[in-house]
Amino acid sequence: HGYPKWLIGSKDEITKSKEWTSFVHELHEAIQQQLTESHVQYFTDLSEAEKELFMQRATKALEGGSTTKNLFSRVSSVMDRQLNDQVSKQLLDDYPTDTRSDLIVEAAEEGVMSMLKRWPDMKSKLHVCFNQPLAEPVRQLAWHLYLSDPKVRKDYVDLLNQNPRLAISPQDLDISQRVEQMVLSESTFSDLKGSIGHFYAMKATLSYHHARQQIKGRLPDIDYFLVVPFVLVASPSLSRRDPAPGKVVALLVEEYLTYMSTRPGYIVDSGSQLHNEEMKGFVDKIASILEKHYGPTASLISRNFVPAREKIVATEKGSRAVLVEGLTDLVRPMARTMLIGYLNFETLLYVWDQYIIGQDVPGFSTEWLAVVMATLLGLLHDKLKNCQNPQEIETALNGNSPSLTVQQFQYQVKRYHYRELYAMLTSDQKAALPVLDPTQSVHPSWRHWYNDQIPPYTKPQDRRKAREEREAERERLLQQQRDAERLRKEGESRERKAEHGEVMKLAASERARLDQERIALEDLLDDERRRRLDAERKAQEEIENLRRELDALKKPQPGTRPPSTFSFSSYISRMLIPPPPSPASQVASLAAIPESPARTPAPTLNPQVQAEEVVLDFLTRIRRSMDKIASGEGEDAKVLDAETSKFIQTNVQDIKRAQMEVFGHRLQPGEFEAMDAMRQKQASDQMMALIQKWREDRRARDSRR
């Protein structure tokens, strides 16, 4: 957490002061006394909770003493001076457009926020801001501190990371339409109209809220209204043109769901007996405030809400009952919506600021809202006095309450309720920070910011010379920054060029290597193609020779006799029969070769049929040889089949991918044939170029492995 310079300087100066040394010495003695009474030897032997308890008791013992008063006075004066010194330096060096008082307030806000971020438990110190609208950055931090629930936020973020669909309600479209309708129909929501960021933030938060409940019904209308203040507080982080960032939506979900789970019963107002009792007690408080401070308004409400047949004479008790009954009808919608839609955004956030910072004080929220409701009715008395029935009162409230200002509420609260409510807030904080109200502060007011010493008078020429020197120094510093920036950019440019050159060299060498490999593979492919062509040519010649011989045999010469048993063919057939076993074949270690009986060609088998069988057998052997050459044998055939299948699948994937690249989608059957010839040629060329490129890339990757 970064702290402003004036706060760090104040800390350093205070810790070196004699007032701080005296306070620490007395605090040490008070703690040592507690250790002795508790029979504890060392402070480090205590647990963290016990250490904190001992520190609180020791501080409480020193409270109100001279040492504590001197220290607080010293702290106040040091912070006054350090803050003023920083603002004065800022006015002298930066020439800001803001006034000194604006800069003082901004610097003080920065210091407060840095300490609250470092020590969130100090959020109760914000009670000193009671009856004041919080500054925008302080408001964001304060609401988050009081409505923080890390578990809710973690559940939402984890759900988004695991399954974002579960974070969206099945009725997301209906929720979007109702949000848009609410923004357009409510007159006080005019600042939200047309803002995409605010719309998306409300819709996303409500959609998750509905999905989390796991109900089939629609969300209540009140839930739509109650998300508006949280979106208003997050406005600095929302764009009117772009959807809300996920981080902002997660923060809104955390704060909104935490608020919804901590609402008192009279705001939930579900109709249960417990909630009805809370509503009755709440309205009774409003009635008491009206009777005490706004008597005419109480009488006006009683008069308009008394039934016609009972407008005769009423006792004091009966009059109070009528007032409570009439207030219940008026207050119930305002309480359920927390005045959203009744007040303008500025006044609404002021009311909610006080409600939020009183969350840690039991009963304060109820007292505060009762005061606000009664004050609202009292401020609108002039607008309500001419109403004749409850409907006219409600119409007047809806039409005139948006015109009420923060200052009107502040004045009424300060006049009638400040002392009581502030005492409730600070009942257990007697050692709280000095309050903002000067009338209640026990320490001297800060004076440096308006009581600073006036600079000595200087002549115009001296001021001009000093100004020129400052401008020259500023220009020199700017020139140094520009030169440093230029040198940095030149260095980066040189580095980028060197890196680009290296990349180009590597790419060129890689392309050369790929080209060499491609050429070598093409040469191998050409050699293989030539060998296969030669083999096919020779086989074709053999087939032609055999075909000619077959044709010659098919034409028997006239006058030839049928071949006899003693012809040349029969003799060749007999000679091809294996001979009978010889004595050498009778060796015991060798298996006997069975003798096949001698056979002679059938006398009916003519030379033409024999030639056809010989040719058919030769062709069959050639086909089997070609099959073995093309498809392999055994394990080689399996490997070749696998590689062929893989190649076919790769080609199919390449074709589908090329279709996506060229057409943007996969072609349907008949779509390519429906194109004209020119389009088909262009698409085919583009697809083949892509497929060839991908093949070369794969070949290059495989060769590097």
What does this structure look like?
The protein is built from 28 helices and no strands. The chain is mainly alpha-helical. Among the domains are: 5-118, no CATH class; 149-262; 267-436, Cyclin A, domain 1 (Orthogonal Bundle), CATH 1.10.472; 635-704, no CATH class. It is elongated, with a radius of gyration of 49 Å. The model is unreliable at 430-441, 563-596 and 598-602 (pLDDT under 50).
Number of strands: 0
Helix content: 55-70%
Distance separating the two termini: 52 Å
Would you tell me the structural class of the helices and strands?
mainly alpha
Largest beta-sheet details: none
Return Rg in Å: 49 Å
Order of helices and strands: HHHHHHHHHHHHHHHHHHHHHHHHHHHH
Uncertain residue segments: 430-441, 563-596, 598-602
Number of helices: 28
Mean pLDDT: 82
% residues in beta strands: under 5%
CATH topology description of the domain at 267-436: Cyclin A, domain 1
